[in-house]
Amino acid sequence: MRLFKAILLLMLVVSIIPTLMVGWLSVSHTRELLIRDAQELAQERVKQLRLKAESFLEDPTERVVGLSSVPGGFFTLPREAQRLHIAAVLNQRPEVLALTVFGADRQRLPGLQAFAVHDMAPSGVAEHEERARALLDEGLTGVRYSDVVASHGGGGGGPVVTLAFPVGDPVQGYMAADITLAGLRQMLAQERVGSTGFAYLADRHGRLITGGGGLGAVGDDVSKRLPLAHLLKQREGTPDTELFHVGNFGEGREAVVSAYSVLPEAGWAIVSEQPVENAYRQVESMERRILLGLGGAILVALVLAAIFSRNLTQPLKTFIATSLELARGKFGVEVHLKQKNELGELAQTFNYMSKQLMAYDMETRGLYESLEKGYLETIVALANSIDSKDAYTRGHSQRVGDVAVEIGKELKLTERELRQLQYGGILHDIGKIGIPENILCKQSRLTDQEMSLMREHPAIGDAIIGPVTFLGSVRACVRHHHERWDGTGYPDKLKGEAIPMLARIVACADTFDACTSTRPYQKAMPLEKAMEILDNLSGAQLDPKVVQALRAVLAQRGVRLEGHRQPVKLAS
User: Fold this and answer.
1) What backbone torsions phi and psi does residue 276 show, to the nearest 5 degrees?
2) Which of 60, 105, 237, 371, CA to CA, is 20 to 30 A from 328?
3) Which residues of 292-326 are buried (b: 16+ CB within 10 A; e: fewer)?
4) Does residue 517 contact residue 526 with C-beta atoms inside 8 Å?
5) CA dist., res. 51 & res. 557, Å (int)
């Protein structure tokens, strides 16, 4: 029970006592938490303002740009239909004050200019066209916004922005529109940041677009305000970067908590400011009380935790490290502890368990190796029963299994799949047991009837190994190693990916060994000639990916060819 008492005492001292002291003193949050809360509030406020500002700008913009995608193309419509589309935009979107269509030569098209009569004076229309031409002269590739100006029409001097964009590819013409930001101005004027804070919108040059705080009129220079100055400096090197920042700016009574973000389409900055003294008003008074209580609690906790943690954590680290070694298969590893408490008893139990696992592992490995050796000997014996019928094919099955394993390694197959390839390669011709010897050993061309009998050996082999449970995973290699990639093979005429991958690999290895082995009707081919034949069969008889893997094997490892090549290593 000594360990339990030590842990209990440590929990009481390190957890309960500091928690009670901090809970009594911490009526609210620490300074860092309060500052973060204020900054997160500013951050969230700017995010919401940005979404609203983007919506004010994007909704009418999308409606205007939608003219470029009217059915049949805007510039192919009759003039009257074009006027109706323009009028529909002004009627549906009151934010759009004027809309002008220009030809590909950047000249205004007669009769294709409209404006809101009650919201825009004739002089405002002329200014709109002048701003539009300035945008066209910049060489447009997409939607471009002008600098924001104050409207001189019926809109009451509110901010107005002109947008222009090309239509068609190649360009058939251009469109330009004036959009009032009066709604955006009203929204920002009503926005309150605490009791004394405000939000405002500025363009990429640091000129005021709209906002609260009595900053001035549209177009006034506000680039000296610290948050905006910081933003403009950040954008000097990367003007198209989408920025976001929150933090404190300035010192003393001029210090503010501010957050800013950028509207990516127009490049405008949305800024929120609040005096630091209002944002962090309760921080300093709470900080003194919290630090006083935490200082005493931490001092007590640290001293006592240092005494108890050493006696507890060091043995636990040893257990963790040793357990990891055990989990990785290093059976027999031991924990050496001199303590005579529960940890010492646990170490003795752990060591006994580790030794027992080592003994069981050795016994299991012996049984597994013996079982697998028996499996392999059985498979080799079955293959030899086929190869022994024909001296020219002796060793063929073993070589096919070896080459198939190397191809499988190149294709990153698992160890289990490699073992299945080895067994499948060795057994792929087991069905030839059921083929008459006069056909199997015939040294001249087979007749059609004899060939029909020979083609039954995949199905015969499948039937032979079917009842053998541990060979069930290699039945596909035996049955389908004569299927062709183009679907003309046998016995099931499978095609492409429908042929099991292991069978495709065995088919490639079988063909390769047939080309590089001496037979009654051919001599062993040189390696280059054999690969030339396999390349010709790629995509017709053989899977191109498997043929490519075999080529990589030949280039990297070398393959046994009639005894004069380095043999490949069997899968473990």
Assistant:
1) -60, -40
2) 371
3) ebbeebeeebeebeeebeeeeeebeeebeebeeeb
4) no
5) 61
Distance of CA 382 to the CA centre of its chain: 49
- Of 476, 451, 473, nearest to 462 by C-alpha is 476
Please give the structure tokens belonging to residue 204: 């990429």
Question: Which residue type sits at 202?
Answer: A
Backbone phi and psi for residue 410, each to the nearest 5 degrees, phi listed first: -65, -35
Query: How far apart, in whole angstroms, are the C-alpha atoms of residue 295 and residue 440?
Result: 93
Cα–Cα distances in angstroms (integers) from residue 210 to residues 98, 149, 245, in the given order = 21, 10, 20
- Spatial contact of 344 and 351, defined as CB atoms under 8 Å apart: no
Q: Where are the alpha helices (DSSP H) in 138-282?
A: 182-190, 226-237, 276-279
Output the DSSP codes for 171-206: T-EEEEEEEE-HHHHHHHHH--BTTTBEEEEE-TTS
pTM: 0.46
Calpha distance 469→482 (Å, rounded)? 23
The encoded tokens of residue 181 equal: 């930001």
Residues of the chain with pLDDT under 70: 1-34, 152-157, 192-195, 237-242, 279-291, 293-314, 316, 319, 368, 372-373, 375-376, 379-380, 382-394, 519-521, 557-572
Distances 317 to 214, 329, 342 between C-alpha atoms, Å: 64, 19, 15
Instruction: Give me the phi and psi of 213, to 5 degrees please.
Output: 85, 5
